[in-house]
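User: PIHD3 protein, Rostratula benghalensis:
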Amino acid sequence: FQVQPEKMKTIWNTEEVPEGSEFDDTWDPREEPEYEILFKQCVGTEDVFFGMSGKNRSTACCEDMVIKIKLPETKYSDITLDIQDKLLDLRTPQKKLLLHLCYRVDSKNAKARFLSEEETLEVTLRVSR
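Assistant: Predicted structure for PIHD3 protein:
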């Protein structure tokens, strides 16, 4: 029995599939590392004292997103990091983190640094608005 191409119906459209779903592996036994997401905002004296720019304390007024990921007993050379516009994918031999970001970021200009004393990877992403 062969299905005719005109009778085939797809159950979803490719635009409906979220970005990064190809990385989602529920059978991977590695645990998710502890992490925190912080937001940075550039403010000057006109913001602090006079409130002239209209910025407030919400994340909607922040320019950068900083993600701090705890990676105990990990070497810098063991870290694989992939950043896309709405996704952060981190892999080490012991840990795996697939993080769907709440804002679109400039993935081409992301910065990462490994703080070996604190065993933490710090990723700074510029929020695209």
